[in-house]
Write a structure and sequence with these properties.
By secondary structure, this protein is an alpha+beta fold. The protein has a single domain (4-182, 226-288, 313-345), classed as 2-Layer Sandwich (Ribosomal Protein S8, Chain: A, domain 1), CATH 3.30.1370.60. The chain has eleven helices and twelve strands. It has helices at residues 7-20, 25-41, 51-60, 88-106, 126-131, 185-194, 215-218, 230-250, 283-298, 314-326, 333-345; strands at 4-5, 70-74, 78-82, 108-116, 135-141, 162-167, 174-179, 203-204, 210-211, 224-225, 268-275, 328-329. Helix 2 (25-41) packs across helix 4 (88-106). The longest helix is centred in the last third of the chain and has 21 residues, at 230-250. Belongs to the LDH2/MDH2 oxidoreductase family. This is Lactate dehydrogenase. InterPro entries: Mal/L-sulf/L-lact_DH-like_ah, Mal/L-sulf/L-lact_DH-like_NADP, Mal/L-sulfo/L-lacto_DH-like_sf, Malate/L-lactate_DH-like. One of its GO terms (molecular function) is oxidoreductase activity.
Length: 354
Amino acid sequence: MSIRYSHDELNRFVVNLFQAAGLAQERAEVLSRVFLEADLLGYTTHGTNRVASNLGWLLDGPSRLEGEPEVLADRGAVFNWDAGFLPGPWVVSQALETALQRVPEHGVVTATIRRSQHIACLAAYCPPIINAGYMVLMTCSTPAEHTVSAFGGSDPLFSANPLAMAAPGDEYPLLFDISMSVTAGGYVARAQREGTRMAEPCLKDAQGNVTDDPAALAGPPPGSIMPIGGVDHGYKGAALSIATEVLSMALGGYGRADEQSAGDGEANSVFLQVIDPAAFGSLAAFKRQLAALQSMVTGSAVAVGEPAPRFPGQRAWQHRTEQLEQGIALYPNILEDLAPWARRLSVELPVPLA
C-alpha cells in the first residue's frame, strides 16, 4: 500500500531542502510547487523524483543559485531569454508569469528560453494558466542529449522531447503532456533500476535491433528510443521530434548547431505560448466547443466490457483532485533517494498521513 503525504507536509520538506541548498525562499517555493504539481497530476518520473538531481545541480553542478535571465529579444508579444543555467522550474514560471501579464493586451504571447536547467514536467505549469482561463502550448528539447532515433535509423539523434497543451473547460480541462518518442527516458531509467523490461519493444540497440531491454539505451555502445509510431509509423514521431526542436532551439537561436551546447548537460531549450480564447471571441464559446469534444470522446461506443474512452486531462485532473484531498502517494523510491539529501542538509523528512 502506498504511503501518502499531505501536500502541505511535502511542500514544507521540499522548500526546506532547496533553502538549505542555498536557494532563496521565493525560488524554493516555486520549485516545490512545480514538482508537487507533477505528482498531483500523476507524472511521477518528473515530479518530486527530480528534486534529488536539482539539489545536486545546485550544490555540486552547473545550476545558478542567483541571478536573472538575460533578455535577448523582447517585442511585447514575443520574447527570448538566456537562462544561463538558472533552475528550470523557476525560469519557466517567470516566463509564464510574464506571458500572463501580457496576454490580455496581445491575445497571444510566445517565448523561447535557452540554457534553462532541466524544466521537469510541462503539465505541472498548466493548472494556473487553466484556472486563469487561458490556453498554453509548451515544448522543450535538450541540445546536449541524443537518445531518440530518426525513422529507419538507429543512431540516437534527438532528445525525448515532450509536447504539452492545456485549455480551460467546465468540468475538467484539456491537458496532455506527451513525449515525441514511444517512451520517455525517465521510464527507461526506472525500468533498468527496477530490473524490469519495457512494456513493449520501443528501443533499438546500437546494431539497430528492436528490443524491450532498457539496458540497450545506455549501452555501451548507446542505443536509442524509437519515435512515436515505432517500427511501422515512426516517421510521424520523427517529424514531431524535429518540429519540437525547431520550435525550441531554432526559434531561440541556440541548439545543436552550436558546439558549446554539447556541454550543457540536461539544460533545456524551451518554447511556450499562452493564448487568450477571449481574444478570438469569448471564453464561453470556447468552453462550449471543448465540452462538445469531451462529450463526443467519452460517449463514443466501445466493445462490451471495455471502459469508456477518456478525454486528455480527464484522469489527470481527477487524480489531482483526489490527491489534494487524500494526500499524495509518492512513487516508492523517491523518499529513498531524498533521505541522503535530507541528512546532508539537516532537513527533517516528511511525516506521512496516519
